[in-house]
Structures are given as C-alpha cells and as structure tokens.
Amino acid sequence: MPALDATLQQKIARLEAEQRLRRLHETAVEEGAWVMRGGRRLLNFSSNDYLGISQHPQVKAAAQGAVGRYGAGAGASRLVTGNHPLYAELETALARHKSTEAALVFGSGYLANVGAITALMGRSDLILADKLAHACILDGARLSGAKLLRFAHNDAADCARLLAAHRASHGQCLVITETVFSMDGDTAPLADLRTICDQYDAWLMTDDAHGLGQLLPVPVEVQMGTLSKAFGAYGGYVCGSSTLIRYLASSARSFIFTTGLPPATIAAAIAALKVMHNEPERLRIPLQRARQFTDALGLPPAQSQIVPLVIGSEEQALKASQRLEEAGFLVSAIRPPTVPEGTSRLRFSFSSLHEDCDISNLIKVIKNENIGA
Ligand SMILES: *Cc1c(COP(=O)(O)O)cnc(C)c1O
After folding, report:
1. Residue of minimum CA distance from atom 14 in ligand 1
2. What angle do CA 58, 63, 65 make, to 5 degrees?
C-alpha cells in the first residue's frame, strides 16, 4: 500500500509547527448563551445563532413535528423524490421576506454559493469579488472557470477601476460582496456597487450569511443567504427573479446532485422566519449589545453584531482567547488562512441571548487584562 499516512504525518507536522493544526472542541449548548466545554461552563461569544433561534421553543417543536410527520431524512435529491411539502412553504416565505419573486433552498450556504456562481458564470466571464469575501464565494468563482479579480475591501472605486480595465474583454460579469462581513462585521457599500454594476453592465450578487434578515437597500439580482446562522437551523438559499430560480434549479450542480435537507431542518427554518416576524424586537438586540461593547472600549462603533478585536500575531490572539476562557468567556481566536496574515483577532459575536450584565462583565475582564491594548 502507498504510504498515505506517512505523507499526511509530514503535512500535519508542518501545520503543527505553524500553529495551524485545528482541533475540534466538544461544545454542548446549555440554557441561554451558556455552553459546556472541557468540563467548564462558558458564556458563548462565538456563536452565529445571533437571535438564539436554534433554542426557541416554537422552532424546536416545529422540527420535532416534522420528524413525526415526514421522518428523519428527505430520502432523495429534490429533483427526484426529496422535495417534501415543507420546501415550497419555506421558499414562498423566503421570497416574500426578501421581496423577491422566488427563492431556492440549497443544502447549505456553501453549496448555494458554489452552485449559483458556477451555474451563472463560465470561462469567458469575469467575476469581481471583495478582497475579504468568504472562502466558498472564492471556491465557486474558481470552479466556474471565470476570470476572478478581487477589489479592495468595501472599495467601490477600486471595483470600478477593475471594471474599466477588464469588463470589455469578457462576456458576462458578476460582482460579489457580503452584506455584513463575517470576520470584520462591517457592511458593504451596496448603493455604490449597484451604480457601478449598472454602469458597466455587471450583475450584483450579495452573500447575506451574517445579516439578520433585513431587506437590502438596493435591488440585487442574486441574493444568497444561509439558514444556518441567524435562522438557527441549517441550509442555504438564493432569492431573485423566478427566471433565475428556474434556471438554477436545472443548472446548479450542488443543488441537483445532493439529497434534500431533512424535513426537520426546513420546518425549523419556516418557524424561525415566523419568530423573526413575530418578535421584531429580538432583531435589534445584537447590534445594541455590540454598540455597548465598542462604546465602552473606545472601538469604532459596531456596524453589526460582529466585532473584531485585532490582536496581530496568531500566538497573541490565541493567548487572549485563553485568558478570556479562564475568565468564563468563550471567544474564538480567528487566524490565517481565515483572515489575512498579521490580523489574527478575537471575533466577538453578540446575540439576543446575552444579558446587559454579560456584556459589562466581559468589558471589565478585557480592560483588567489589557486585551487588545
Ligand atoms: C457561513 C458562511 C457561509 C456558508 O454558510 P453555511 O450555511 O454555513 O454553509 C457562506 N458565506 C458566508 C459569508 C458565511 O459566513
């Protein structure tokens, strides 16, 4: 047998030497924002369940009900027999929620990005993506075979410059950005990007994975999002015109060649959407908490519920994360390749499950320990 393990051992040793070997940590959700990890009870500031919806009684009950009615799995791909009745209900509700004609649910946000981008773009086309765009946007762009260029982060003028230089020599053009950036928490200049796209005959695509379900301020042809974060469930979606959706359902390979999501997952997403509509006050809390945090620490005012505290080196970021853990707070250190070299950071994500005093206690520890100072 060829020595697979021996080769991999070398690669692992290299990762370990670079402090880039990742380990899984068992984490069990308790009540509220509390989790158990390594035998300790910690307050979680690293969850993307920003609205606490994964724990909502109505959402859990909806998932349990769907298991009872339809079983544990979808049994086939959606185009075969896996398209259980809950899908149409969710897609109608999502389209209405986003004020688009139609929606298509994919197996995950990752699969939605890869599937939509590869279905829309090909070898003679041009993709412009924000410098900080998520890995799965880049994977989709690379897999499509289109020419991929990156514009400076949130810099519409740089995007225009690239379009001026490269647009004419390509067929179709797609500009892709995130609405709320996953590791920086800042928001994209969508109005400016819209204007530029119109000027250069380019389509606009947004990734709203870290949005809390708000409407976008401008029309966007391809609105991708996930059901795995603020929705508290799992899955991804694309919202847009009914023509776009009809086309994707016949062309996106990550939609076609995979099994439908379990009924419980879709039922949970439907219930999550209802919670967002019925409890709008819930949607305002994460940003309020984030602002409380940035105000107290003299950081630039939070633009979303995600706040980075850039530390610099990987080692220092890991140390800061460990110190917070010792004080009872779970705040992950984010390191390359997730973020650029030299910008290792603590990423705080605030949720509607956090109490006022949770935030003030966290601030106290950060000040006392001089973290990020
Ligand atoms: C998490 C994330 C995704 C992937 O969504 P999943 O549903 O977790 O696969 C896509 N884009 C961005 C920006 C994300 O943060």
Report:
1. 209
2. 90
